[in-house]
Every structure is written in C-alpha cells, then in structure tokens.
Design brief:
Elements: E1 4-5, H1 8-28, E2 34-40, H2 44-60, E3 63-69, H3 75-86, E4 93-96, H4 106-112, H5 124-132, H6 140-150, E5 160-164, H7 171-180, E6 184-188, H8 195-199, E7 204-207, E8 225-228, E9 232-233, E10 239-240, H9 245-248, E11 254-255, H10 262-280
Parallel strand pairs: 1-11, 2-3, 2-4, 5-6, 5-7, 7-8, 8-11
Antiparallel strand pairs: 9-10
NADP nicotinamide-adenine-dinucleotide phosphate (NAP) binds near residues 169, 191, 211 and 230.
Length: about 280
Amino acid sequence: MTAQIIDGNALSRQLRTDVAARTAALKARGVTPGLAVILVGEDPASAVYVRNKVRACGETGIHSVFEKYDVALSEADLLARIEALNADPSIHGILVQMPLPKHIHPQRVIETISTAKDVDGYSVQSAGDLMAGLAGFRPCTPYGCMKLIETTGIDLKGKHAVVIGRSNTVGKPMALLLLQANATVTICHSGTPDIGAFTRQADVVVAAVGRRNVLTADMVKPGAVVIDVGMNRNDEGKLCGDVDFDGVKEVAGHITPVPGGVGPMTITMLMVNTLESAERA
Ligand code: NAP
C-alpha cells in the first residue's frame, strides 16, 4: 500500500483563504483583527518564524504589530509591554517568540498575557480550559494536526491514537485534543521501553519528538494515519521529520510529509486563533 499524502500546504491555503474572507467581513463591521508579535534577541531561527507569522498576517488581512527588543531587555520591561498590549483594544492576540533570553522566565511572560489574547494557547488557563473541555485557544501545532487528521475523513471515535512526545506545547495538548474527539489515547515518551508495541496497535500516530526515525515502517499498523510533527535535519542538511517517510508511506494509509505537512499549519492556526479572538471581542 502507498499512503495518501496529507497536503499541509493545500489545507493551509484553503484555511487562510477562509480567514481572509472572515477578516474582511469583520473589517466591514469596523473591527480589524490585530496580532502583536514580540521578539527578544537575535536568535536566527526565531527571526525566521516571526517573519513568517507577520507575513501570514499580511496575506490574511490581519493587522500585525512587530516589536523587536534587544537581548538585554529586562523581564520587568517585557511584562510592562505585555500589560500595555493587554489593554490595547486594537490587539486581539499576543505572541512572544520562544526561546527567551535566560534572564527572562518564560512561564511568567506567558502568564502575563491576558487569557483572552493568548492565541498560542500556552498559558496555564488555556491548558486548563483544554483539559476541562471548555472554550479557549488551542495550541497551534496540535490544533493544526487535528485539522490535518480531519481531511482523511476518518472518525476518531473508538480509534486508538498514539502520541509520541509529551511536551506542554505539542504532545500533551495533542493527546487531549484526540481524547476530546473520542479516540482512545496512549502517550509514549523517552521512558517508554517499546514504543512499537503501542504504535503497531494504533489507528493514528502523531510523532512529536525532534529525532529522526523515531517511527519506522515495522512500527506502523497497515492503513494507519501518521502525522509527523518533528523538524530535524538529515545528513545532507535537509529538513526532515521524526518519521522514516519513505518506509512508512508504504504501510500507512495517510501520512504528512516534512516539509509541507504540519509546518505550514502551525502559523495558519495562529491566524485562525487571532481572527476568532477578534470575532469574540
Ligand atoms: P520537546 O519539548 O523537546 O519534547 C520532545 C518530547 O519527545 C519529550 O516529551 C520527550 O520525552 C520525547 N522524546 C525524546 N526522545 C524520545 C525518544 N527517543 N522516544 C520517545 N520520545 C522521546 O519538543 P517539542 O517542542 O514537543 O517538539 C517536538 C518536535 O516537533 C521538534 O522536532 C520540534 O522542532 C517540532 N515542532 C514542529 C512544529 C511545527 O510547526 N512543525 C511546531 C512545534 C514543534 P520526555 O518528556 O520523556 O523527555
């Protein structure tokens, strides 16, 4: 069997077109969705991520405010800036690009962002809302993975989903979203002795580790949906995921490529969350 490729670029374009239309409708009613993006320091990867987020705002008609600060910015000054953006009615989402310089406590920064503007969904309140099944912002990467799974048309009810990785930003919220969709969920991590024993039973596998070849063909049930969140470099320096794509695509029913799978969806879901924040406001 050769798996169907789940095209994250195509889905992303479709969702961004929808965001652009809804943004235009909101503007016609006098509200322009606004996203503030804050970058502290000179991390080159962060600079690329931030640029892509600002560009996506431009494409969808969302107003963006980009603030770049010197690496020496104090935590107190950053928190004060966030408080000002919390009070600014033209801003509906606030994103502080991680990682932050060592002298700034990331969770303190995240908790300072008003829950109503926490479009990354990283605050304890947003995590609690997800856990309790309440409305709130879902972290963009797992939210995007759910949209990718939806395109397969497979009903998750009663299916076994295995998430590899348990970070607060990807693995754990991913597991909760799958649970909310009535899947039976298993979470594997670095302390799981035989991950294949779990993934071989799985109808859906989400790999979110940050290590190449975490999932190989012999670990996959024929016909399974495989979502690859990982972003790694292969020996030639090319972007690759956690999944051995060439092998697994011969066994899986559906699979996301890297690049072109989860990656574009993360920024798209940030646009969706910002728009929905403005719609709520
Ligand atoms: P993270 O915070 O480093 O978490 C990685 C998780 O993988 C941890 O829970 C860790 O387990 C687990 N792990 C490590 N080695 C393992 C192994 N050998 N077997 C099983 N589990 C193992 O990373 P993250 O932020 O969740 O990101 C994961 C990957 O997704 C990275 O490659 C990242 O770049 C990528 N990512 C991509 C996007 C995108 O938009 N495409 C967005 C976010 C992240 P322990 O908890 O036991 O240590």
